[in-house]
Backbone:
């Protein structure tokens, strides 16, 4: 199987897994909608002012939608999106999402999930109007009421996507981390391409109360290759600390890619597959994460989304 985004799938079919969303940036739209031999290559060439695209790290190991579909057709059934019990990592209007807490939770449930983890941004990410302590507590009250209303049909965990600062410190004091069900840590800025960021990530994942390292590289399709780090060391630390690593299926992220995901599995890591949805229809982006997991050869037992809500609650309590 070919991996680069420019390697067109062998079979061209129209599918309804993920519709093209006009409001997404044009590059993401290309990842979603390109059809036919060389279509995406032609699109990138247009974006580059007519220069023929070459293989480049910022476009390497991305799947387009057709590749996702083809991959999933051959994937073990346990790794298909409809077999995931949990909808992990999504945003609401409380930070930079477009849906309300309730509409997002109900969309997860309608897609067949038994549990979800909402993960709005922490306050340092001003660009995403992150939640301060007061905001986190207000959201928690709404989550309790929602869980009460939804009873056994669905359980919502409160997570927070906490910014990893430039020195590896976190944008959330220890006492506040303890109040949350799930603490994801992630880098959204200070991508110095010349700096090895291993120590920054090691400090972040070994901080008490951290549960998940989200989109570890922080790459963006066609825009930035993401962090440079000694990944074997980072994954060994995650495995040792009981911190899960995320495979983020948002099309422009696809982070970890399948080769790094395989390396993380080798190191003994467990995984959450994430849509990083910022609107209800984005929840389907978990298909990209499933395809990456399948390509990496991950075992379904290492993927926490396959577990029951009680098992996930117990895992989050002990991690
Ligand atoms: Zn993020
Ligand atoms: Zn996010």
Residues:
């Amino acid at each position: 199987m070919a991996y680069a985004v420019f390697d067109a799938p062998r079979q061209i079919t129209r599918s309804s897994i993920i519709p093209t969303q006009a409001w997404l940036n044009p590059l993401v739209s290309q990842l979603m909608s390109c059809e036919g031999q060389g279509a995406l290559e032609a699109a990138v060439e247009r974006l580059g002012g007519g220069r023929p695209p070459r293989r480049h790290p910022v476009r390497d190991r991305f799947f387009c939608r057709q590749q996702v579909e083809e991959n999933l057709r051959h994937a073990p059934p346990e790794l298909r999106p409809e077999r995931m019990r949990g909808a992990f990592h999504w945003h609401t209007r409380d930070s930079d999402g477009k849906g309300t807490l309730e509409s997002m939770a109900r969309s997860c449930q309608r897609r067949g999930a038994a549990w979800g983890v909402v993960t709005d941004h922490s306050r340092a990410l001003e660009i995403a109007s992150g939640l301060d302590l007061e905001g986190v507590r207000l959201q928690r009250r709404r989550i309790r009421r929602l869980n009460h209303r939804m009873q056994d049909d669905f359980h919502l965990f409160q997570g927070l996507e906490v910014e990893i600062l430039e020195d590896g410190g976190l944008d959330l004091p220890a006492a506040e981390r303890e109040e949350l069900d799930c603490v994801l840590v992630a880098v959204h800025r200070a991508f110095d391409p010349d700096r090895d960021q291993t120590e920054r990530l090691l400090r972040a994942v070994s901080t008490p109360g951290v549960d998940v390292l989200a989109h570890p590289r922080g790459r963006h399709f066609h825009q930035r290759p993401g962090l440079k780090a000694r990944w074997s060391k980072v994954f060994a630390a995650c495995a040792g600390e009981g911190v899960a690593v995320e495979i983020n299926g948002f099309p422009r992220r696809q982070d970890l890619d399948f080769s790094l995901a395989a390396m993380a599995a080798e190191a003994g890591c467990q995984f959450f597959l994430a849509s990083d949805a910022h609107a209800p229809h984005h929840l389907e982006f978990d298909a990209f994460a499933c395809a990456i997991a399948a390509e990496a050869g991950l075992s379904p037992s290492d993927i926490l989304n396959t577990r029951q809500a009680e098992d996930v609650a117990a895992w989050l309590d002990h991690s």
Residues 133-150 form the longest helix (18 residues). Strands lie at 86-90, 115-121, 155-163, 182-186, 212-213, 244-248, 271-277.
